[in-house]
């Protein structure tokens, strides 16, 4: 159930998020610290001063020994989801999914997963004309708010200007910021935003999303390409240009990853044809490192 094509075919984002997150959680053994929580972990012998409400009286009746029930708890984390909704996210893969479709599914699943962990989760959608911002909350009505915003989003235009983004970077709150973007930019504006957010909130998980057909250049014959943000077109023979394209793409990806990590971001590349589990695994790993 982590296949993006299957999840997209459901045409029901809340259901898709639930299926993806719960499918991923099945069999996962999360790293948690022991304490007074909701999930049982193990017994330990009673010691003077322990809370008697945590005694297992049934076990005591059977064994004449007193044991304390330990449980597993998590420290909650504020999770800030960030979606690049510029026009390049309308790029369509061979499976019919746009990058935006994949990003929508992924962020919905991460929101569901975050709430399942007891986190306050919020969302900012980056539009060229302004920010759509839902502040982090952990109440029962937050997921419907986030799902509605994700279902309604349309990718358009170019990445927002620095002045448009100013209110976002002015907020100072420790959080795990998760950005999903294809990182197509003119003058390092996305990198600049994430650098400022790292100063403001502390932790950045950057999920670099590319379509399978642009990663592997699956095109054949004469093809006309259009820049979705500028409208410029380019016609070329895909078979003749494949090697050069792939060499230049790999060079760009290496430079992008190196720069992101130099800035202190936790960088991971995603293929829109692959299941969602890698991104969710990285989220939990990063989240656990913040809560411990």
From TrEMBL:
<dbReference type="InterPro" id="IPR002881">
    <property type="entry name" value="DUF58"/>
</dbReference>
<dbReference type="InterPro" id="IPR036465">
    <property type="entry name" value="vWFA_dom_sf"/>
</dbReference>
<dbReference type="Pfam" id="PF01882">
    <property type="entry name" value="DUF58"/>
</dbReference>
<feature type="domain" description="DUF58">
    <location>
        <begin position="42"/>
        <end position="249"/>
    </location>
</feature>
<protein>
    <recommendedName>
        <fullName>DUF58 domain-containing protein</fullName>
    </recommendedName>
</protein>
């Amino acid at each position: 159930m982590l296949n993006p094509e299957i999840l997209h075919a459901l045409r029901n984002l809340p259901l898709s998020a639930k299926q993806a997150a719960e499918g991923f959680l099945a069999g996962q053994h999360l790293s948690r610290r022991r304490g007074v929580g909701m999930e049982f972990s193990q017994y330990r012998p009673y010691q003077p001063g322990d809370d008697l409400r945590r005694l297992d009286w049934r076990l005591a009746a059977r064994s004449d020994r007193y044991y304390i029930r330990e449980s597993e708890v998590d420290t909650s984390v504020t999770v800030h989801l960030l979606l690049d909704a510029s026009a390049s996210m309308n790029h369509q893969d061979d499976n019919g999914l746009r990058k935006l479709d994949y990003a929508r599914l992924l962020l919905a699943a991460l929101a569901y997963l975050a709430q399942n962990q007891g986190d306050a989760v919020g969302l900012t959608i980056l539009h060229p004309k302004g920010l759509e911002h839902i502040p982090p909350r952990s109440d029962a009505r937050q997921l419907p708010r986030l799902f509605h915003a994700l279902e309604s989003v349309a990718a358009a235009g170019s990445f927002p200007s620095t002045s448009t983004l100013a209110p976002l970077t002015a907020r100072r709150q420790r959080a795990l910021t998760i950005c999903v973007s294809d990182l197509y930019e003119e003058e390092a504006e996305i990198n600049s935003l994430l650098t400022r957010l790292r100063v403001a909130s502390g932790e950045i998980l950057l999920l670099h999303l590319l379509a399978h057909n642009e990663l592997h250049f699956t095109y054949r014959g004469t093809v006309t390409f259009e820049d979705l943000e500028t409208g410029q077109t380019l016609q070329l023979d895909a078979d003749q240009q494949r090697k050069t394209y792939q060499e230049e793409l790999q060079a760009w990806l290496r430079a992008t990853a190196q720069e992101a990590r130099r800035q202190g971001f936790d960088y991971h590349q995603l293929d829109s044809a692959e299941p969602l589990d890698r991104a969710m695994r990285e989220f939990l790993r990063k989240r656990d490192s913040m809560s411990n």
